[in-house]
Design goal:
single chain; 468 residues; alpha+beta; Penicillin V Acylase, Chain A; 6-stranded antiparallel beta sheet; globular
């Protein structure tokens, strides 16, 4: 289908609280010649748990279903996640936001007491201390919130009013206030996620010849593993702008999502090597820009070009894995401050892009993304990050050593390590919140959710929908 193409200048402003370096930085190991690398970097430990995977995912049945009075929000409580449908075809963004906030309270009352401490855990982690000004935090949040495009702003506003039930102010009192409910929507832009990785395979590297995209989301689970209780798949029903997000209950931006044209996008943090000072004036929220792009463009190239063209206006550098049935890209989005110093640049990387000196990828018809730019001459997040280098090299070895992948093979590959072994860097580790697989042959979307028990070696992959 043909979506209405929008101009590249999309008015939105984003901010964030602080500038952090990418999580997982370890030794100062240099990029070097492939033959000189130590084999230990690509060795893996087999997971002790046993599970025989197939290419199909398990389908869960709803335990309970809750609907708003106007029917604009329906929340199905599944054994492992929440399945949410938001109906923008029969209501305004504000009406949908209000319905969502009210229905969450009914479907999962614990949301209020669970999310409030999680917000402040993220704030303290971002600042690295308990000494911060709540007024300053809200001032920055309010700045980005006031500049969000009107449809999204109305939705956030109505959601926050409904879910906060009249509570106001940033006070740690076990209740969720309006301000705190707004912050929930801006955590990826304002407080930053942790580490992630992604892999796309197609052509000669898949049994079907069709693409298979894998996304490993690593996120802050919370001190009590709170996020393991609110995994969510949200179906935003909006005609040609429809999409499905894989994230958390109550989130309206995009962490990982696929639209009804089959364009999949997921965010990966990068940051800057030189700890650039935080800048928010005139900036945009890239997570809401991803939502906008998925709503308004119908192929991976258009989505990638849109994000790259706006990348200078985001709050910090990041990667995006972007795939559809015909293309696979990594949008290396470099912020203006880094680019102006000549330390990096924005680029839509594909399998033919030359890589950083000393970085090697040995298989065609495949693309790997970790928490660093990889294009030749771009900002190097590998040399001083053993974690990035190890994961990239492991993916390289795994892909090289398998002739053609099925979905089953992808599951076996990503779950072959022991997540509890801290003696080596692992791809699937104890920060993995969701493992997402999009199979373009069948259209199936499968997700392995980390529950409140924490990450397990061999999780169950669930069929949560399709892209057809």
């Amino acid at each position: 289908m043909n979506k209405k193409k929008m101009p590249a200048c999309f008015v939105a402003i984003s901010i964030a609280f602080v500038s952090l370096t990418c999580m997982g930085c370890g030794s100062d190991r240099k990029l070097d010649n492939k033959e000189d690398r130590e084999v230990s970097l690509v060795e893996t430990l087999s997971a002790n748990e046993t599970r025989e995977y197939t290419s199909e995912g398990k389908v869960e049945e709803a335990i309970a279903t809750y609907s708003s009075e106007d029917g604009l929000c329906v929340i199905k409580v599944m054994p492992s996640y929440f399945d949410i449908t938001l109906d923008y075809e029969n209501g305004t963004y504000a009406q949908v936001g209000n319905a969502y906030g009210q229905t969450i309270i009914e479907a999962f009352p614990e949301y209020i007491t669970m999310m409030e401490p999680y917000i402040y855990e993220n704030v303290r982690t971002a600042y690295g201390t308990d000494e911060y000004s709540k007024e300053a935090v809200w001032e920055r949040v309010e700045t980005i919130y006031s500049a969000v495009p009107s449809d999204y702003k109305e939705e956030i506003d109505a959601f926050a009013k409904a879910v906060s039930q009249g509570e106001e102010g940033m006070v740690e009192n076990g209740k969720l206030s309006y301000e705190e409910a707004v912050i929930i929507q801006l955590i990826p832009d304002a407080l930053r996620p942790t580490s992630c990785s992604a892999l796309s395979l197609w052509g000669e590297k898949t049994e079907s010849g069709q693409p298979i995209t894998l996304r490993c989301l690593e996120w802050n689970l919370g001190s009590e593993k709170q996020m393991g209780s609110i995994n969510a798949v949200t179906h935003m029903k909006n005609g040609e702008k429809s999409l499905t997000t894989m994230g958390m209950l109550g989130l309206l931006d995009v962490i990982s999502a696929v639209n009804d044209d089959g364009v999949f996008v997921a965010i990966l943090d990068v940051g800057s090597n030189n700890k650039e000072p935080f800048v928010y004036e005139g900036k945009k929220s890239y997570t809401f820009d991803v939502r906008y792009a998925l709503e308004n463009f119908d192929d991976a190239t258009e989505v990638g070009n849109y994000m790259v063209s706006n990348s200078g206006d985001y709050t910090w550098c990041h990667n995006l894995i972007i795939t559809d049935k015909n293309h696979s890209y990594c949008a290396e989005d470099c912020v203006k401050e880094v680019a102006d110093k000549g330390d990096g640049f924005s680029n839509l990387r594909d399998e033919n892009t030359e890589l950083l000196d000393g970085l090697h990828w040995d298989s065609k018809d495949s693309l790997c993304v970790v928490n660093s730019f990889a294009s030749k001459g771009n900002q190097d997040g590998f040399t001083k990050s053993e974690f990035n280098l190890t994961r990239f090299e492991k993916y390289n070895e795994w892909v090289k050593n398998t002739d053609k992948f099925s979905v089953k093979d992808v599951k076996d590959m990503i779950t072959q390590e022991d997540v509890n072994d801290v003696s080596v860097s692992t791809v699937h580790n104890d920060s993995a919140v969701q493992l997402i697989i999009v199979d373009y042959e069948t259209g199936d979307i499968q997700v392995a959710f980390t529950g409140k028990e924490g990450v397990v070696n061999k999780p169950e992959f669930l069929d949560v929908g399709d892209i057809n």
